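name: query_chain
kind: protein
chains: 1
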Amino acid sequence: LKNQFNALFCANAMKSMRTIGVLWVDEVSRVTAIGSPMGVIAGIIPVTNPTSTTIYKCLAAVKAGNAIVCTPHPRAAKCCMRTVEVMAAAAERSGAPKNLVSCLSGGQLAATRELMSHRDVALVMATGGPGMVRAAYSSGKPTLAVGAGNVPVYIHRSVADVDEAALMVVTSK
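structure:
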C-alpha cells in the first residue's frame, strides 16, 4: 500500500507542483522564490519501508530537476536496487537521461559515508536510525533527515484528549 501511495498519490500530487523557476512572488514584500536544481542527491534508504522510501525519494529528486544515487541499508539492498531499476527505466522511457536515478549495489556503510561526503553530492536525503541520521548531518552537506527519535508529530486541534495523545506519542517513540 505504501508503494502504491507513493507511486500514484504522491506522484500525482507532485505533477502540478512547481519546483523549478519562479515558485511564488510576494509583491508587498518584494520577494520572489526561485527554485533551481541542486545537482546530485544522496538518497539514504532504511531497512524499514525501503521500497516506498526509494520511490518517494526518486520522485522528489527528479521532480526538482536533480539526479539521485540511492544507497540502501545492507538488509534492503536487493529490493532497493530492484525498485531503482524500475524507477530508472520509467524515467528513461519518459525522456530522462540514463543514470539520472541510480543505486549503489552493495549496501555497505563505508560506501554510504563516502557517497554522503563526495564532492559531487549536493544534498543528502537520509532516512534511518539515530546513527545514520547523525552521520548524514555530519557529512558536511545540506541534509534532510528523519528517523527513529527524529520524527515530527502533528496533533490536530480536534483531538479531544491532548494529554492522552501526547502520552501515546511519547510511548510509541
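note: Helices lie at 2-15, 50-63, 77-93, 109-117, 130-137, 162-172.
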